[in-house]
Amino acid sequence: MIPIYRMKVIQIEITNACNLGCSNCTRFVGHHKKPFFMDLETVAKAIESLEGYPGQIGIMGGEPTIHPEFKEICEIVQKKIPDRRKRELWTNGCKWKEYEEIIYETFDKDLITYNSHEDKEVGEHQPLLIAATDILDDRELMWRLIGNCWVQWRWAASITPKGGFFCEVAAAQDMLFNGPGGYKLEKGWWNKNPNEFVDQVKRYCVNCSAAIPMKGVSAHIKYDIISPSNAKKLEKVGSPKYFKKNCKTCTFKMTEAEIEENVKRGWTPWSHRPYKQSGPDTRWV
């Protein structure tokens, strides 16, 4: 794993509410009894805690434009992050027309990631509610894979109302399973190497499949694929999606040979689709 300060983005997750219900969502949309909406004071505090961080600062959800104070959040971003080139936005465009002006006032077009998730022909998600401990009996192999997880290398660390996290999936998992929360949002919390965030690694990575090379599933199927230990956790927290029977529990095991074969076949779970957008009218490879 790499230090948090070497990660290219730290996301400020202003909400985990979303207008969509994609399967196997990285933020586990549909499993929360009630979504959160980060208050403005916490947004400001989150940004302030990143003083000196060399990477980008992202605004993300869920779907961030659903936040009832999205305009005010953009104004805070403008004030607290004077360098436009450090600001990024992830959106599915839910309220694009309503907020287009303030979005472009706040974010440069090339630093906006727009994904409406409407293209049914593409879009795969790694089923993150499959626990590594459920499908890998070889614990040495499991920890070796976790130590080289692509989320750490390619995606982001995160801030939620519960604190700072070395990994965006870990942050979402903490919220879903009523975890103890993240690191206190004080200046320099992000200045940690892997030995210093190993507590979060041990707590969250074992419940996740991100690091394990396996076949992705369409983001447009009607259910999440989960494993037995996470099924018990979802039942305990009262997941609406679980109790509506919109989950399928798997009991398969994986071997090192199968994992190596999946890698050879071109396992790229970070690539949701083959093209990019920064708005509804832009599309390029």
Defining key terms:
single chain, 285 residues, alpha/beta, six-stranded mixed β-sheet, two-stranded antiparallel sheet, globular
Helix-strand blueprint:
Blueprint: E1 9-13, H1 40-49, E2 56-60, H2 70-80, E3 87-91, H3 96-106, E4 112-114, E5 124-125, H4 132-135, H5 139-146, H6 150-154, E6 156-160, E7 163-165, H7 168-176, H8 198-204, E8 217-218, E9 224-226, H9 228-237, H10 240-243, E10 247-249, H11 256-264
Parallel strand pairs: 1-2, 1-6, 2-3, 3-4, 9-10
Antiparallel strand pairs: 5-8, 6-7
Helix pairs in contact: 1-2, 2-3
Numbering strands along the chain, what is their spatial order in the largest sheet?
A: 4-3-2-1-6-7
β-strand percent reads 5-15%
| Beta strand count | 10
Low-confidence stretches: none
> Please, what is the average pLDDT?
95
What does the main sheet amount to?
6 strands, mixed
Tally of helical segments: 11
Give the helix/strand class: alpha/beta
Oligomerization status of the protein chains: single chain
Q: What Rg, in angstroms, do the CA atoms define?
A: 18 Å
Helical residue percent band: 25-40%
How far from one another are the termini? 29 Å
- Globally, the shape reads globular
Sequence of secondary-structure elements: EHEHEHEEHHHEEHHEEHHEH
Verbal overview:
This protein is an alpha/beta fold and 285 residues long. The protein is 31% helix and 13% strand. It contains 11 helices and 10 strands. Helix 1 links the parallel strand 1 (9-13) and strand 2. Helix 1 (40-49) packs parallel to helix 2 (70-80) and helix 2 runs parallel beside helix 3. The two termini are 29 Å apart.
